[in-house]
Amino acid sequence: SIPSQLRLRCSRSVRVENQFVYFAALLSGCNTKCNRESVNGKMATENGLDMKNCVKESFEKTKELGKNEWLLMLEGIFNTINHVMIGVVCIYTSWLCWINGFSKLYTWHVFLCLLGYHLLMTEGIVLFYSGNGWSQKLTHSHKRTVHWVIEVVACFCVVLGIALEIYYRETSNKRHFSSAHSIVGLCSLIFLCLTFINGLMSLYAVELRRRIKPVYSKLSHYLSGTVCYVLGMVAIILAYRKKIYYQNTIQEGIDMMFAFTILVTVLSLIGVVRTVYNQLRMLPK
User: Fold this and answer.
1) What is d(CA 165, CA 7) in angstroms, rounded to the nearest whole number?
2) pTM of the predicted model over 0.90
3) Which end of the chain is more exposed for a tag (fewer CB within 10 A), N or C?
4) How far apart are CA 74 and CA 145, in angstroms?
């Protein structure tokens, strides 16, 4: 009959619709599963990249720490060698002064200028160096205090030594500043006075900041102090040709002190050059 045929067709259409719904649900489930798998894959990839980056960063940090340790070790070695050479030259020259006799004014000139430049002024410079052993535990303010105390004593020794030599030449009717050694020493004395003045300006840089910027006062102190120190060490090197040396020791001893003084000058100025470079970078453009 007709109603029975209509019912059969309706039931078939419902079955077809249910099948479509079922297949649609299956497809959506598959898509959801694929999306989840892709998301999980992306997360796994990202986690893997993060792990690789962490490993790479830790390796670079370890490598950098290793380089810093090697650098600190090299600084400590060179600093030790520097102090050994300072001690050798000072002890050797003091022995020569003892042989020459401290009753002579010229002997005191040699001894005081060597003490002022080669020992005290050098130690006052290298105490700011990061590889310097005896000043590593000092704070920066303590280093500044020790620095100016040592340098004041060094200035006193140099000025007194040069004054004694001038007095000795005056009483002996000898010409003043007639050699390369004496001329270089005079130039060093001029820069010593200049360094002392701008050293006071650097010490009170905060109080004087309205008149002059602290970076300029410190930079001028570094530069004039470096010139003063280098000229003083050059004057000492030129003094190795004097009678007090070649009459009381052998040529090999003079050559040793000549080489040691040059190396001490170079090694002692490493920290100063680094500081001057950083100060120049801080200058306003």
Assistant:
1) 135
2) no
3) C
4) 27
Domains and CATH numbers, the chain: 77-282 (1.20.120.1770)
Report the chain's mean pLDDT, rounded to a whole number: 82
pLDDT above 70 covers a percentage of the chain that reads: 76
CB-neighbour burial class of residue 276 (10 A; exposed 0-12, middle 13-18, buried 19+)? middle
CB within 8 Å of 166: residues ≥ 6 apart: 176
pLDDT (0 to 100) of residue 210: 82
Lookup result for tokens 């002997």: 107
Lowest mean pLDDT among 153-157, 230-234, 263-267, 272-276: 272-276
Furthest-apart CA pair in the chain: how many Å? 155
* Residue 124 to residue 134: CA distance in whole angstroms: 12
